[in-house]
Design a protein that fits this description.
This protein has 151 residues and is of the alpha/beta class. The chain has one domain. 32% of the residues lie in helices and 23% in strands. The protein has 5 helices and 8 strands. Strand 3 and strand 4 form a beta hairpin. Helix 3 packs across helix 4.
Length: 151
């Protein structure tokens, strides 16, 4: 039986990014051979449309470039993503790097200038605080290495 894996839907080529674009940066076929995939998009789950104004995390708040506070949307999306993990039996996730919801380790700094700062996106932080191991697409080799150790 394959291990369940939450995956940011944008990494699977689904056009749910803030700009409606697709970022498929991973080998989906290789991923589905190793894992049962549970696609997630916390920003959509939180009620935000596609396309939407870009957002960045500013401390505990998430704000759109136009100044709109969307923290509650990000909170709802994080909670729903966690509920999907529980319902699906996933204890690991592969999330989009640098995202205000899915980033791990570094995210955009809130200045909307492309600068990065140490920190985690809202959903990544929420999942990790509840014991779900999070990887980004930049750590996919580590994800596969962990999976092969567990076989």
């Amino acid at each position: 039986m394959k291990r369940k894996l939450l995956v940011s839907a944008c990494l699977l080529g689904i056009g749910c990014r803030y700009d409606g674009g697709r970022v498929k940066k991973i080998n989906v076929e290789e991923l589905t051979e190793a894992f049962d995939i549970i696609p997630i998009c916390p920003e959509i789950y939180g009620g935000l449309p596609t396309p939407r104004v870009p957002s960045e995390r500013m401390g505990e708040r998430v704000v759109m470039k136009d100044g709109t506070d969307v923290t509650e949307n990000f909170e709802r999306g994080a909670l729903y993503s966690y509920e999907l993990a529980l319902a699906g039996g996933a204890d690991i996730a592969l999330l989009k790097a640098k995202s205000p919801s899915c980033g791990k380790g570094e995210i955009y700094d809130g200045s909307f200038t492309g600068r990065l700062t140490k920190g985690d996106g809202y959903t990544a932080e929420y999942l990790m605080a509840r014991g779900i191991k999070v990887y980004t697409e930049n750590e996919i080799a580590m994800l596969f290495a962990e999976q092969s150790k567990e076989k």
